[in-house]
Amino acid sequence: MSVVYSSDIANPERRLTSFCDELKQTALLDPAARFLASSGKRIRKSIVDLVFNMAGGIGTSPPRLGESIEWLHAGSLVIDDIQDDSPIRRERPSLHREIGTPLALNAGNWMYFQALGRLFDDSLSKSIQHRLLQKMIQTSLKCHQGQALDLGARVDQIDPMQIEALVRETSRLKTGSLVAMAATFGAVAAGANRTLTSALSRFGMNVGIVLQMRNDLEELRTLVKDSSEGLAIRSDDLRNARVTWPWAWANQVCTTEQFSELVSQLHHANDRRVGIAGLASQLLKYTGPLGDKVIRDRIESQLRLLGEHVLDVSSLQRMRTALQLISKSNDLLVSEAANAERA
């Protein structure tokens, strides 16, 4: 009788365990994996690998380094979309629109801890693990400080003379620090000395700031293009009056009257599709070519500075090729890819 009784108790427990596992899979693991798989350029992971070789590493960097950064970045995007109430992300419904805000918030926070957990890798010494964990925690704190600046200011409520300083600091904390971390990861894993590690980290910081410039500019271009084609538009920056690089550039090139008119358009656009697309088009008219030039010039400047510390020409060329994803607009990249395919 006792054997039968134990079996009767064990079966419900196994069924409960199976049910909980399935629920975790559908409510957390599957949505998180789908979101990570839809990631964009993965420029941060590329920088880990490229810097690893630049710093003397042999072969490819430990895969968990790039994975940890991708998980951290993915988590930040999920939280960003909730804070911005963004309806779409990478041509798909945002995660909170897909599975609901409570589950998406839980998934985004889980991704942060998944990122930290990835750094406990037996292929890395304990001292290197400690340095990487310390860097990720410091970077996460900076990213949240930058997000506070991004959420706490509106471009129509601050002195236009403060715009460039604010967007530079926001970009440094939010985007620059994350790319700097990627470069530091590659350097530390390769065993680089402190001087080279610092130089590579500074390079990553400045590339991250340029990456934010490109993202701000391409959001406007995508908005105008998708609106003209009748597609769902992502207009978070304009809808929420975010302080972005195009506004900083507009303040440089516009007259006081022209800039005031842009701000007036922002007030009247609200959530109106036509109004937001029209404002994006106006901002691009003033700042598109200037923004593209600033981005190209800064990438070239950073590559020249990097060449003072890295003598391997082939690794520098690979970095230059990877950074074309930032230095060139999406439209130009698509055009070049199409021409190469026809050739």
Descriptive labels:
343 residues, disordered N terminus, 15 helices, globular, two-stranded antiparallel ribbon, Farnesyl Diphosphate Synthase, mainly alpha
Report what the structure shows.
The chain is mainly α and 343 residues long. The protein has one domain (44-325): Farnesyl Diphosphate Synthase (Orthogonal Bundle). Helix content is 79%, strand content 1%. It contains 15 helices and two strands. The protein has helices spanning 2-37, 43-54, 63-84, 95-99, 101-118, 126-152, 163-190, 194-228, 236-239, 245-253, 256-269, 273-307, 313-322, 324-327, 330-342; strands at 88-89, 92-93. The protein has a two-stranded antiparallel sheet. A hairpin with a 2-residue loop joins β1 (88-89) and β2. α2 runs antiparallel to α13 (313-322) and α12 packs antiparallel against α13 (313-322). The model is unreliable at 1-8 (pLDDT under 50).
Layout of strands and helices, then pairs:
Layout: H1 2-37, H2 43-54, H3 63-84, E1 88-89, E2 92-93, H4 95-99, H5 101-118, H6 126-152, H7 163-190, H8 194-228, H9 236-239, H10 245-253, H11 256-269, H12 273-307, H13 313-322, H14 324-327, H15 330-342
Antiparallel strand pairs: 1-2
Helix pairs in contact: 1-5, 2-3, 2-7, 2-13, 3-5, 3-7, 6-7, 7-8, 7-10, 8-12, 10-12, 11-12, 12-13
